[in-house]
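Duplicate of #3305? Posting structure anyway:
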């Protein structure tokens, strides 16, 4: 699981601590809700109680059972808290970055972003880096400097070890069917007191 080897580093290589998956952090709390046969993990700000985002966990047949926030910090140095969410089961894992920006929060699908660089560097079909058994994450780092974020990772697979990376121009957003950010609570101009 990539969360076990993730590190977030500032330009001077200081590490921000990743922790085990949590349903509650210093700024967020979560609850699970059922909506039309689907299960969602809803994250709300502790102080304002406003929903910030929700992540699709699955339905009655297939559902992630190990989920939560694995890091919270100001990754892009804009004065607002950003989050790394991770979820999975025995077969796969996903990692999403919920990153603040000038007009609100956006999202980064870490594995899909890294897969884009894999294809660019090595060719072939797009790998599903979230699938256990095929690709084994060895290490990964998030670097943050001058308001930008860069993700680097190393994966072991049948043909050896591959290093991949992604920067802001290459980030792939999380699919709306998997993650929804509440637009009424993510705009800093609207709710600056909730940060």
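Output from current build:
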């Amino acid at each position: 699981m990539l969360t076990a080897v993730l590190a977030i580093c500032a330009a001077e290589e200081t590490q921000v601590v990743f922790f085990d998956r949590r349903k509650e952090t210093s700024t967020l709390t979560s609850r699970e809700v059922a909506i039309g046969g689907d299960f969602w993990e809803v994250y709300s700000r502790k102080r304002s109680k406003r929903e910030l985002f929700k992540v699709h966990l699955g339905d009655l047949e297939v559902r992630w059972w190990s989920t939560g926030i694995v890091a919270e910090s100001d990754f892009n140095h804009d004065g607002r808290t950003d989050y790394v969410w991770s979820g999975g089961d025995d077969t796969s894992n996903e990692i999403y970055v919920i990153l603040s920006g000038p007009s609100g929060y956006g999202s980064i699908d870490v594995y899909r972003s890294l897969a884009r660089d894999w294809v660019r560097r090595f060719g072939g079909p797009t790998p599903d880096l979230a699938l256990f058994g095929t690709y084994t994450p060895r290490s990964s780092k998030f670097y943050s400097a001058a308001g930008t974020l860069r993700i680097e990772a190393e994966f072991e697979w049948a043909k050896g070890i591959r290093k991949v990376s992604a920067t802001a121009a290459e980030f792939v957003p999380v699919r709306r069917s998997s993650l929804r950010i509440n637009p009424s609570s993510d705009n800093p101009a609207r709710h600056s007191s909730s940060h």
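Confirmed duplicate; merging threads. The chain is about 10% helix and 50% strand. Residues 2-10+21-194 form one domain.
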